[in-house]
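Ticket #4471: structure export looks truncated?
Reporter: QA, pipeline team
Priority: medium

Steps to reproduce: submit the single chain below to the structure queue and open the exported record.
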Amino acid sequence: MGWVSEQLVEAAQGGDRESITALVQGAHPHVRRFADHLCASPQDAEDAAQEALIVLYRKIGSLRATAALASWMFRIVRHECLRRARRVLDGADATGPALEASASAEEEVLQRLEAERVAEAIRALPDVQRRVLILRDVLGHPGRTVADGLGLSTAAMKSHLYRARTAVRLRLHNSPGA
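Actual output as written to the record:
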């Protein structure tokens, strides 16, 4: 955790507001960069990063081990990106049932088209990359479990995952309707 000291985390856990503020500000670029790799859009990435920072601010006192801060933050970001992706794939809006009744047919069609674009981008991946992406990012399996299940080293699994995420992002960015 090169971007934050153990003393800063401990002070933040103790409720020191200046330490909490410094921790949130220091974490933002790292959390955002991670979200950019996971989320389908820059807006979703920013929203996921903000959600993770809000959780950090509110719940830093409940963190058990200071060394677990980075993995805790990244799990929050991953969860938020997956939640947003599922919402798009399910055709639901983030605001839930209240907005569902007033959603226009046009919005519903656009959401389905976006879900189809994402699904097509994933289908276009080479087999191993597609499996790694689905197991790791969609189903949320731990990296080691994915690597073992596919007979890959952790490094190879990470490489395939990076390539898959990049390919999907580029395909979505360059496809019609982007």
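Status: closed, not a bug. The export was complete when the record was re-opened. Leaving a note from the reviewer for reference: The radius of gyration is 18 Å.
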